[in-house]
Amino acid sequence: MAKSKARKKRAHLARNGVRDVSLSRGAQPSFSTHERMTKSKKDRLQNIKHKKRNPYDHYSDGRDSFFVQQSCSFL
Fold first, then answer.
1. What is the spatial distance between Cα 11 and Cα 17, in angstroms, rounded to a whole number?
2. How confident is the model over 12-34, as pLDDT tens digits?
3. CA dist., res. 48 & res. 37, Å (int)
C-alpha cells in the first residue's frame, strides 16, 4: 500500500530530528467503543415495506387515484 503525504512528511521530520507527533496520540483500547444495536422489529418491518417500492409509483401507497371524479350533467 502506498504511503500518504502526511505519513511521508512525519517520516521526513523524524529523520531530521523533529519530535514525532504520533507519540502525542492517546492509547486506543483493544475493543470497539461505539455502541452497536440490532434492528428492532419495527425497523425490520419498515425496511421490508420500503425495500422494492418504486418512489415514482404514486398508486402503490394505498391511494386509488389523485383526482376526484365529479359527476356533471350536461343535459
1. 10
2. 999 999 888 878 888 877 888 88
3. 19
